[in-house]
Amino acid sequence: MKKVISAELQPEMIIAEAIFSLDNKQILIPAGSKLTEKSIRMINNWNISFVLIAEDEGLQQEETSVPEPERVVVLTEIMAQKTADFLNNYEEATSRVGGLLEDIRDQGFVELTPFREVAVQVAKHLIQPAEAINKMLFKVPPPYGS
Asked: What pLDDT score was predicted for residue 88?
């Protein structure tokens, strides 16, 4: 088993240790799975910095190991901070949009620049989704036909 940074992951590599959701209650990618382009993108979106890869390509699905306690604590702290950052950003954006809408009502015209600024502020948190956002997205049911 070797530790590979996410930027160096390649399709067909085999996951040696399961990748868990942030609350460690759900397996996102089971041990023994072959990586695909899609799974590599998801790993990067989840901000996972490294993955344990099997050195023996013949490794098949094996029992899932329990994450190391210190890694769980670090993930919990990261999750809490990213959730707080996202919520602060969201609250600032909604408050600012509310103020902008009041300005439109009072002034009778729309100035687009402040709305663009709010959109850019929110987009910075969504371009590369943080774990907090991914956790929220996992709770959304898949669309019909998926």
From this structure: 84
Does some domain include residue 105? yes
Using alpha carbons, list the distances in angstroms from residue 73 to 77, 80, 88, 143. Answer: 6, 11, 23, 33
pTM of the model: 0.40
Neighbours of 87 (CB within 10 A): 11
Residues 38 and 75 in one domain: no
Verify that 116 and 82 share a domain, yes or no. Answer: yes
Q: What percent of the chain is predicted at pLDDT more than 70?
A: 64
Which residue range forms the structural domain that includes residue 129? 69-138
Phi, psi of 112, deg, nearest 5: -80, -25
